[in-house]
Amino acid sequence: MKAPVKPMPSLRSDAEAEQFVETADLTEYDLSGFKPMRFEIEPKAASLNMRLPAALLDAVKAKARARGIPYTRYVRMLLEADVAPPR
């Protein structure tokens, strides 16, 4: 018989999250709603300035908003994905 799936607790700090991960049996929790996350660590030393049609910029902003990220980060992710070596 399968144990009931526990809801994820609300963690308010890094310390709470670290404590939870160290002590919890994560197999008891439903992690299906989790999404991969990339962390922006590398410093940004260069900038890009370009002109776009308003409709294209609006579409980019809408896609970024749907992902819950700033549109500049979304554009950077698209550029990184395009120049990344194939897996």
Could you explain how this protein is built, in words?
- InterPro entries: CopG_antitoxin.
- Pfam families: CopG_antitoxin (PF12441).
- There is one protein chain.
- The protein has 87 residues and is mainly α.
- It has two domains: 1-34, no CATH class; 41-87.
- It has helices at 14-23, 54-67, 71-83.
- α2 (54-67) packs across α3.
- The longest helix is centred in the C-terminal third of the chain and has 14 residues, at 54-67.
Q: Please report the distance between the alpha carbons of the first and last residues.
A: 40 Å
**Structural class determined from secondary elements:** mainly alpha
Largest sheet: none
| Mean pLDDT value | 88
Secondary-structure element order, as H and E?
Answer: HHH
Number of domains: 2
User: Any idea what the radius of gyration is?
Assistant: 19 Å
Give the percentage of residues in beta strands: under 5%
Structural topology:
Blueprint: H1 14-23, H2 54-67, H3 71-83
Helix pairs in contact: 2-3
In short:
With 87 residues, this protein is an all-alpha fold. It has helices at residues 14-23, 54-67, 71-83. Helices cover 43% and strands 0% of the residues.
What labels would you give this structure?
mainly alpha, 2 domains, elongated
